[in-house]
Write a structure and sequence with these properties.
207 residues, Rossmann fold, RNA binding, WH-like_DNA-bd_sf, ANTAR
Length: 207
């Protein structure tokens, strides 16, 4: 038998104060190939289990003791973004607004059936995966821009100090980066820091 699709291997935390609902969800999800790693019976327990178990996705009722599902979602996502699907018997504009602010990725209306549950899980997980990819792309771009700024500054220092042309300064940076087995951004930062340290030392020696 071939392995199930990747989305069927995700770890799910359930949160609902009605045991009949969590038991039914657990059976449905397990039969569909998912792994239910924990069950919370109130909002605070959901926050604690999310912190401890680090699930891939959470299915959570809105109306629960201690704190409601939306507040629990807000606290969970404040610590670690996790795709969350809320379950509710009704949905008004205020609930939808609060859910959006808590970064909830989906909701289901009771009574929940398998034909609604599984697609909601798949969609929320897929959206979360794409968001993580986009976040990673933005972080990589920011890092690349920061490296370019360091290299340009270090290149300028080499040009001023050694009387090099821009192309010569760049080749020197690349050569030293390979020789020292350092990333060019790290080498550029080292050159800048060394220059600043030298200037500081020279200033402190002035009468």
């Amino acid at each position: 038998m071939s392995d199930p699709p990747a989305f069927q291997k995700i770890k799910i935390l359930l949160a609902d104060d009605e045991e009949t609902i969590t038991s039914a969800f657990q059976v449905l999800l397990t039969d569909a190939g998912y792994q239910v790693v924990g069950v919370a019976h109130n909002g605070l327990e959901a926050v604690e289990l999310a912190r401890k178990l680090k699930p891939d996705l959470i299915i959570m009722d809105i109306l629960m003791p201690e704190i409601d599902g939306i507040e629990a979602a807000r606290r969970i996502n404040k610590e670690r973004f996790t795709p969350i699907v809320l379950v509710t018997a009704f949905a008004d504009q205020d609930l939808i607004r609060r859910a959006k602010e808590a970064r909830v990725l989906g909701y289901l209306l009771k009574p929940v059936i398998i034909d609604d549950l599984i697609p909601a899980v798949e969609l929320a997980y897929e959206i979360a995966s794409r968001l993580r990819e986009l976040t990673g792309e933005v972080e990589n771009l920011s890092e690349e821009l920061a490296t370019r700024k360091l290299v340009e500054r270090a290149k300028g220092l080499l040009m001023d100090t050694l009387g090099l042309k821009e192309a010569q300064a760049m080749r020197l940076l690349q050569k030293e980066s390979r020789r020292r087995r350092m990333k060019i951004g790290e080498l550029a930062k080292t050159i800048i820091e060394a220059k600043e340290l030298l200037e500081k030392a020279q200033t402190s020696q002035l009468p």
